[in-house]
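User: Can you write out an input/output pair for a complex, sequences first and structure second?

Assistant: Here is one pair. Inputs:
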Amino acid sequence: MRTSTREVLLGRAILIFVMLITLIPFVTLFVTALHAPGTYPNGLSLPEEFHWDNFVIAFQSANMAKMLTSSVLIELGVVPISLLIATLAGFALGHLEVPFRRTLFVVFVLGLTLPFEGIIVPLYYQVRDYGFLNTQWAIILPLIGLFMPFAVMWMRAHFVNMPQDLTEAAKVDGASTWQLFWRVHVPLSRPAIASLAILLFLWTWNQFLLAIVLVDDPTKRTMAGALGAFQGQWGTDIPLLCAGSLLILTPVLIVFLVFQRQFVAALLQGAVKG
Amino acid sequence: MARTWRPSAGVTSPTEEPSGDIRSRRRADRARRLRAGLPGLALVAPALFFYAMFVLRPLFATVQYSFYDWDGIGPSTWVGLDNYVRLLTDPELIGPIVNAFQLILYFSIIPVIFGVIAAAIIRKLGASKLALASRTVLFLPQVIPLVAAGIMWTWIMASDGVLNQFLSLIGLESLTRAWLGDFDTALPAVGVIGAWVNVGLCMLLMLAGMTKIDPALYEAARLDGAGAIREFVSVTLPAVRQELGVAIIITVISALRSFDIIFISTQGGPGNSTLVPGLEIYYLAFFSREIGQASALAVALTALVLIVVLPLNRLTRTESMS
């Protein structure tokens, strides 16, 4: 292919420019977090002395250990249950003869574009009536429901492409539907389930609206919700706010860097399928 | 149903199909199919339960609330379409919707255009280290909470922030201001945050689409004497139609339902200059206690997203079938 050096150079330059723009906010956050607490640093400037202890101060005074525990609890409540029931439903809708199959699928798809703001008001009263307000359940249960349209569609798209012969073979061998699911299909679906797990983890961690509406106590919220409270509390102490934000960012960044390949693939596929 | 009824006594033995009668056979068929489908239905049930309980039920409740005047505590009064009438006539309530549409420019149009062009140029780099590194870096804004993006950019665009520092450095001191606190610049400033979040996703989506294109097509185009722009319009664009559609849908939705970024950076201010429907629903329901009005706006927002997305969706689906 004829590709001129000029084009390659231009491509490089654009890429570097976009990467710089993407990174500058992170760098700013990091540098600012190292300034003396209580000061008002001027733009992007190196502090005279690096205040690494800002991270410790932020961690302790924001009760970060409790926030982390809460986020992990919420993840443990949301992700496994969502994965299980979405896989079951996706398997049935994609691979079995289910009465009203089309109707059921359309009902799920309808929820795909629903903005969470659209149902947050009655959700508040509903959760209050159940007595879950201000507990982790207030985030866990609605979030499972809200993830269902995407999760079921994702798993169904996977199971639709599984060869029917597999099922026939297992049926001939006398496998029940349940055995067929657990012994044959789940092991073959690990990649699809893993991608979905990554997406659900991320969306739960970053969930903000449900957290601020349904849970008052920042130490019982998701990390993103806690970060919101954090800003309200420390909006004036910029270095500490930045240090705290970085601490809250770190876990997702680590998970992202470790599972990078799967992450990018999952997010792009998720985008195309969603 | 006008078929003749033929008794078939004696033909069936207990071990065979129960009856030769068509009607009852049909009924039996349906019953059998339903019975055969029961395990499947049982598998769908848990997902359907959570979905019905925490999405469909509140969705119907939102519609129901929207016809009432209710403060969340006392008795509610039926007001018919009054809340919707106010939605269309009260400038305070139209403003947020207009703002959301303006945000489409920043959250969607700019990142998509930028993403397409950048991806077209980057495609030529192939699998260089730089291109690989960019996949990691450009995804960072998609991974972090939007709240964090809001906090970072609030600080960057503050009066003592990096942006003003940079402007002063290159001699544009006259332009410096508190970007998020200025009536003229607050909405575009919020938009820039959204653009920052979305541009990487758009670019990578486009790149993913473009890597599927057969290089022979480009060879052919070049042989026919097509320039870079002609080649882009007649080879690249048609091939990435699906990814383009997806990028537009996702980013448009993110503009219409924006909440997190604005909640953190401006709270809708100054004045109402950056107020968006999501935030207005939150304020109406949980601060001014106008549950009915908040619900009407919620219904409108939900409908708006559907109205905008459905035609776009059709555009991408027809192509993807082939």
